[in-house]
Amino acid sequence: MRPPTHILVVNGVKVRRPVFVIGAPHSGADLLGRALKRSPGLHMTMGRASVARVVYAFARRPSIARSGGAPSVLRDVLAEAWQIVPGACAECAAVCREAGGIVGSGPCVGPGTLSRFGDASPDLLYSAPILLQAFPDARLIQIIRDGRDVVADMLADPACMRWFKPHMLSEDAEFPNPFLGVRAAEHRERWNAMPAAGKCALRWRGAVRLSAALRHELPPEQLLTLRYEDVLTSPGDAIGAVSDFLETRVSTIALYGTAASKPGGWRKRLSAADADLVARVGRDELSRLGYR
User: Fold this and answer.
1) In the prediction, which pLDDT does 259 show?
2) Which SUPFAM superfamilies does the record cross-reference, listed alphabetically (predicted)?
3) CA 96 vs CA 34, 85, 112, 116, 134: distances in Å
4) Pick from 38, 29, 55, 35: which is nearest to 108 by CA?
């Protein structure tokens, strides 16, 4: 049985049915976050440093996430991120400021028009169970993308590649490790010796498995799953589904003319060896999701 909804008030507005966008790295959570951020009445944050610290602490140490105080910690840090005060946007990540059209210090939304809150921070997927404990009425939107395209983008992203240094799976690392996609301690040396493309594929595979578990556990009125490819090729239909799911009007403009990576780009961006490795690591998930 789910715990009762915690009454949280931010800037005089009760936090009801907050919206969280989740997915594997480079699966398009930022694209949808941008659209939601530009939607009237919705205050969407993306990558606030304080939120990121908590999210990555939970992702790397699942035992911390399982502690009784984890929901309160996550709820409090999100409430702080959602506060609308002068200069608040100065603490936001560049992607969030750009999405909100912030030139100075903000804020990006007026408290008088505010009715709903949300977050689309990177790697929020790994905190999904805690989010649901902190906000039992939350609405989750997860985005699925071809793992080969995900790996191509991850390899070009220095921030992603920093997670693959040997110390990330040190002797005190916890297993199974969904964040890096490693199941057991005996696989540590194999992971260290694996090419970067294989490590990226493991991260994607682990994230996709978490997404599959959420689809099995949550009712359709609480979880919406989109494909990255559909968001790009049919933005109107994708945003229509999001609008129906959230029962609110969502802006489509942010999805048109985007410079996001096009589907199938991995064919030119991955070497033959890397493409083969990704296909082998993610074979079952690629097949199950229809990416032949």
Assistant:
1) 73
2) P-loop containing nucleoside triphosphate hydrolases (SSF52540)
3) 8, 16, 21, 17, 23
4) 38
pLDDT exceeds 70 at position 103: no
* 218-248 per-residue burial string, b: 16 or more CB within 10 A, e: under 16: beeebbbbbbbbbbbeebeebbebbeebbeb
Cα distance between residue 202 and residue 109, in whole Å? 38
**C-alpha–C-alpha distance, residues 8 and 240, integer Å:** 29
Beta-sheet strands, E only, within the chain: 9-10, 13-14, 19-23, 42-45, 116-119, 139-144, 223-227
Cα-Cα-Cα-Cα torsion 74, 75, 81, 85, nearest 10 degrees, comes to: -150
116-125, 131-140, 252-261: range with lowest mean pLDDT: 252-261
Q: Say how far apart CA 217 and CA 240 lie, in whole Å.
A: 24
Name every residue whose Cβ is closer than 8 Å to that of residue 130 and which is 6 or more positions away in sequence: 58, 65, 70, 71, 74
pLDDT digits (tens, 9 = 90+) for 229-240: 999 999 999 999
Residue 119 DSSP SS3: strand
Instruction: Find out whether 229 and 195 touch, Cβ atoms under 8 Å.
Output: no
- Alpha-carbon gap, residue 74 to 100, rounded angstroms: 23
Alpha helix locations (H) across 101-165?
128-134, 147-155, 158-161
Kindly state the tokens that stand for 34: 């941008």
pTM of the model as a whole: 0.92
Can you say whether the dihedral through the CA atoms of 139, 53, 56, 152 is positive or negative? positive
For domain 1-145+219-261, the CATH class is alpha beta
Q: What are the domain boundaries of the chain?
A: 1-145+219-261, 148-216+262-292
